[in-house]
Amino acid sequence: MLDVPTVVAPVEGRAWPARLRRPPPIVLVGLLLLAISLGMQHRVLGAFTTSTIGDVTGDPDLFGWWLTWTPWAILHGENPLVTDWMHHPLGVNAMWNTTVPLLGIVLSPVTLTAGPVAAYNVGMILGPVASGIAMAAALGPWVRRWSARTVAAVVYAFGPFQVAHASAGHLNIVWAVLPPVLLYLVHVLFVRGTDTPYRVGALVGLLFAAQLFLYTQTLALGVLMLVVTAVLLAVRFPSRVRERLPGLVRAGAACVGVFAVVCAYPLWLILAGPQRPMSTIRDPLYGVTDLANLVVPTSLTGARLVPSGIADTMRANVGEQGGYLGPAMLLLVVVLVVTVRSTPLRLAAAVGLISLVLSLGPAIVVADHETGFPMPWAVFTEVHLLGEAEPVRLQVVTTLCAAFVLAVWIDRIPALRWLPGVGLATLATAFAVLTWLPADAYGAREASTPEFFDHAAQHLRSGDVVETVPAVTSVWDGGARPMRWQAQADMLYKIPGGYFIGSDPQHPVLIEAPVSAYQQGAVEAGAGNPLTVAPADAAASLRASGVTVVVVVPETGVDTAAVLSWTAAVTGDPGTQVEDVWTFRV
């Protein structure tokens, strides 16, 4: 009833000679995806350790810090999920941040040998590859031809959603492996059924635990859409509910049990741990899909059938504008749902539509205009934890469903009886796919580090707390550079600043460390403005954070001499030029 094609048996006597035996199709798909990913990121290949993938530097530097912190903490006996190496002395709760500890372990050989910038770039290149491979493999129960599965893998791995988040340096999102795995679980748990529900449930629990250590929001939204899919199947096939329910209950119990045991401590950190945010992190209408984005592509899409200036009016930044489907793809999906007699295709389209509607958030936003028209996601805004999720991230499910529909359809095209229809169907499908073709617009931003930090062990003491000028901020371009410098120095010292999600006794929510009196004076001095802070107050702010050294990095457009004079007055140290920076002992 679910239209699952049978596997074609191999033809006897047609075995390939050992020397000419072809690699498994999944390997060829992986190589193709890797070639595409390398081609899209060609700008970074010649400067792999001194430039980062993406059009901004804030999140790349943030991820580089966490990729360094996880293996460093494990090797030095530190807690990798709670740290005061940033935002010292209060520290940061890693489980409320995009810390990707799983990738920190997987990429640790690169981090420990080539540094955080190279590790981040490797992760950004391999993320779409892993996601596409997972997609091609997950389609096995429904799609026989590898050509169809390959197209779906490419569309999923390099569609507008992934391209948008890659441009913003979102390492945690380009590793979108969980949604295809959940697609396969739909077949195992809901369609085929399993004779070993406890074993399967335990494996799913371990899978969810792995995703928790990659990106918690993808886990929460993925489980939500898994439940939605189960409900749709139950409505479509009510006679099968009684047959499948006992196995699902057993699998669910095993899943929850294993997940609770493995993730007990991380879950405690999320629910009751230190420095967690004590209020709503962001406006519920910020992280939503702008309705205009469904038909308006950004500059990251090659085929732009509407004036590009319209994209500039949409909600959020280009990194969150990955909801583009386009008129051609939308029309193709509608036509296929109406004309193709395929239950899996229609169910996938229904799940995709639901994910799209939910991604619009609590109310519709069109070209950054808040209409006030309520949407279903409003129900979840009051749900603890889930209400903090950004519904715009559900676009990954919409993309997955579009890729599924394409794969099922492409798999059927050769079977069309009307020969001209094969050509027309192929052309129409190819045109819809090409409208998703990404533009050659990926950036690679400079990520060099002052020489002082490359040789920090020669100039600093282990355990120093270092205040840098410039300070760490959440500014997308350049704000987190001092975190990269700290990572390049192999975490030799702590910093009082930071770019993170957390809180302190005075602020229920923080996105960056509060500006200290010293930093306020440094900014005023560097800009040539009158000082509004007394040196004694600035010195007290340094002592309160445990700062032992101030490092001033000269910058273009900043009155470095004035900053040095201010720092000397605050610390009582005339300062010493060390390589390409100035240092002051407090």
Strand content: 5-15%
Overall 3D geometry?
A: elongated
DSSP E strands, number: 12
Number of helices: 24
Measured as a percent range, the helix fraction is 40-55%
Structural commentary:
- The chain is 50% helix and 8% strand.
- The chain is an alpha+beta fold.
- Helix 3 packs across helix 6, helix 5 (108-114) runs antiparallel to helix 6 (116-138) and helix 22 packs antiparallel against helix 24 (560-571).
- The longest helix has 23 residues, at 116-138.
- The model is unreliable at 1-13 (pLDDT under 50).
Keywords:
about 575 residues, alpha+beta, single chain, four-stranded mixed β-sheet
Task: Write a brief structural summary.
By secondary structure, this protein is α+β, with helices and mostly antiparallel strands. The chain has helices spanning 25-40, 42-45, 58-75, 101-106, 108-114, 116-138, 146-158, 160-167, 171-174, 178-192, 197-212, 216-236, 241-262, 264-272, 326-339, 343-359, 395-412, 419-434, 451-454, 456-459, 481-488, 517-526, 535-544, 560-571, and strands at 51-53, 82-83, 92-93, 363-366, 369-374, 444-446, 466-469, 499-504, 507-512, 549-552, 576-578, 581-585. Strand 8 and strand 9 form a beta hairpin.
